[in-house]
Amino acid sequence: MTLPTLLEGRLALPLIGSPMFIISQPALVMAQCRAGIVGAFPSLNARPSGMFEAWLQQLQAELTDADAPFAVNLIVHRSNARLEEDLALCVQYRVPLVITSLGAREDVNAAIHSYGGIVLHDVIDDMFARKAIEKGADGLIAVAAGAGGHAGTLSPFALIQEIRQWFDGPLALSGSIATGRAIAAARMMGADLAYMGSPFIATAEANADPAYKQMIVDSHAADIVYSDVFTGVHGNYLRPSIVASGLDPDSLPKAKDMDFAAMTGGEKKAWRDVWGCGQGIGAVDKVQPTADFVAGLKADYRAAVAGFTL
User: Fold this and answer.
1) Is residue 146 within 8 Å of residue 279, measured between CB atoms?
2) Is the pLDDT reported for residue 121 higher than 70?
3) What is the mean pLDDT of residues 80-102?
4) What is the mean pLDDT of residues 61-81?
5) What CA–CA distances, in Å, run from 155 to 64, 130, 200, 242?
6) What's 66's DSSP letter?
7) DSSP string of 126-185?
8) What's the rounded Cα separation, in Å, for the pair 19 and 40?
9) Long-range contacts (CB closer than 8 Å, 24 or more residues apart) made by 83-88
10) Which strands, in side-by-side order, build the sheet including 235-238?
11) What CA–CA distance (Å, rounded) separates 30 from 105?
12) Is the pLDDT of residue 262 over 70?
């Protein structure tokens, strides 16, 4: 197993805060980095597009070497009209870690590598993992069943096992991870890092409606619906938010084609009206500052590691 050099000695916990559409903005990212974990955000969260550069400037000005590095998520799918513009800014500002999604491209990887940046690509199965590495990604994020947002269907045991049979580079695991004990379990399974998103929705710094945060606290795994109707890609969503939007979770309309340009258009928008969430939220019992939440994760992680015996 391998940790990217830029992360060595920079993390208080082997954890990446996953980039969540709308939710992850500079306040949350900086709180995560200052707590000792990688904070990440999708470039598309910065709207209008000119705001992306301002966010990069803010993060570089306010974060220090004592903080964990930050990451930017680029949607590589052809429907993302901003990809080239956002990629150029990542290069200009030398973003240390770039997470690519929904398409692996050699030219994108080469651009990030041109200044020494690291690329992690998220995948839902072994086939996509192999393609990503063939096209130059440095590492992988294995998105297993139960992950928030766009998620896969494979067991994390199966997914990590298949990838580790041929790949010994940086590997993060995503899917229902919400506790320090789960982070420890991810490492025991063969991942270098855990990848956690949904629990951070219920933090003070998250850019989420207070009702969304409370729904995270009040909900459990049984309240998650897996559907491709909202963006054309299968993902996990909170059942109560689907009901509140006027739809029947048990009788959803036919899925449309994938189109990330339309994710903020239409009457009912993913993720503004229909709220994404992973299955691990049963562990979330309150809304709290990111620093306090991560402190709890650290204590739980240390206890899990110390308590492991054969």
Assistant:
1) yes
2) yes
3) 96
4) 95
5) 37, 18, 23, 26
6) T
7) HHHHHHHHHTT-SEEEEE-BT-SEE-B-S-HHHHHHHHHTT--S-EEEESS--SHHHHHH
8) 5
9) 83/108, 85/49, 86/43, 86/44, 86/49, 86/52, 87/111, 87/112
10) 149-150, 235-238, 224-227
11) 29
12) no
Local structure of 271: helix, strand or coil: coil
Tell me the average pLDDT across 179-184: 98
pLDDT at 263 over 80: no
CA 15 to chain centre: 11
0.90 surpassed by pTM? yes
Token pair for 268: 């009912």
| Continuous segment of H or E residues that includes residue 276 | none
Q: Crossing angle of helices 290-307/180-189, nearest 10°?
A: 50
Q: Dump pLDDT digits (tens) for 134-160.
A: 999 999 999 999 998 888 899 999 999
Residue type, 103: G
Hey, what's the torsion of the CAs at 90, 91, 95, 99, to 10 degrees?
A: 60
275 conformational bin, left if phi > 0, alpha if psi -120 to 50, beta if neither: beta
Rounded to an integer, the average pLDDT of 215-226 is 96
What is the mean pLDDT of the segment spanning 162-174?
97
